[in-house]
Amino acid sequence: MNITLPAENGDRVSYRLVGKPVVPSKGAHFSRIAYAAAHVVADPIAMTNPWSRPAVDWDRTMAFRHHLWRLGFRIAEAMDTSQRGMGFDWASAKELIRRSIAEAKTVPGADLASGAGTDHLSLAAAKTLNDVIRAYEEQFAFIEGEGGKAIMMASRALAAVSKGPDDYARVYDRMLSQASGKVILHWLGDMFDPALKGYWGSNDFDAALDTVVAIIERHASKVEGIKISLLDAGKEVRLRDRLPDGVVMFTGDDFNYPELIAGDGRRHSHALLGIFDAIAPVANAALAKLAEGDRAGYDALMAPTVPLSRKIFEAPTEYYKAGIVFMAWLNGHQDHFSMVGGMQSARGICHYADVFRLSDQAGLLADPDLAAARMKALLAMAGI
């Protein structure tokens, strides 16, 4: 099957689909904890004011979570992949968390953790650390009140009001000491959110590393693990090597995840990844191979997903959600390519053409005929 795709130089290139859809392993056992940060499916009919009033197709959004659970993944709910802070507000996140926790109880073995942040606190209203603490407490209380587990998301408000590492220590000490269960921490780099520059009170990685390790060591019994999203494998390994026993590393590195998950023979990372939303069938098959001790089989499956992930997460990285939802549309998980906040407009047609091609080469087009038909429809809207 051939399709004409645009090139960045303005040319039109004939591309022949070559991929064979990877068949996931049913009932697979993983030797790594694998969270997929899941997207939300917008309701394009109800979304009459898409820039400021999100509207969600709850049935399709929950169906996608069942898709991930069937493939053996845990779900990281209401994170940046669901557009938290980028069109998806706390009121919508509360409904999403409530529905997902209730839905998980209907699925044997299903698991999830939900993002607790401060995004309902505007930066203009964030004056003191106590403002930040109260905002975190509200979201923690809601999640734990629903019977859920919290992922303590990085806070724009904390980054704005903090004067240094001691302020981060005060906020994190307070929240971890009073959390009812174990918490996952999240170190999100400014490539994902420019407002988080200098998180942990310093632009110097070594200083930030010392701050977060000290916090974790003081609260090791309350920290399940930490997700680091800096797109730098070396920095992740340095943090991983300093974690106390019983605290795990969750890679959030959507550029270097295969090697970090496989490990270096001494330690390995578990996963909490946005890209797993898009590559779930292949990641399932690869993680099953890794659990069987078949490193070559794992590498062979994972390797073609890396160029795809790097394309989806290319700068400006914060717009990666568009590629995630695009792939869900190509693969029939939703009937439209509309996003909360109209975020599908954040990437150009050449970007989507590259994602289509790389998805095919990674065996991630479940129904190539459907995917090609949908790609042609998108190209027609761009005049191609």
Question: Could you explain how this protein is built, in words?
Answer:
The chain is α/β, with parallel strands linked by helices and 384 residues long. The chain is built from 14 helices and 10 strands. The strands form 2 sheets. The chain has an 8-stranded parallel barrel, surrounded by 5 helices. Strands 1-2 form a two-stranded antiparallel sheet. Helix 5 runs parallel beside helix 6, helix 9 packs antiparallel against helix 10 and helix 13 packs antiparallel against helix 14. It is globular, with a radius of gyration of 20 Å. The relative contact order is 0.15. The mean pLDDT is 96.
Computed over alpha carbons, the radius of gyration is 20 Å
- Could you give the distance between the termini? 18 Å
Strand order of the largest sheet: 3-4-5-6-7-8-9-10
Assembly type: single chain
Throw out a few tags for this protein.
globular, 384 residues, eight-stranded parallel barrel
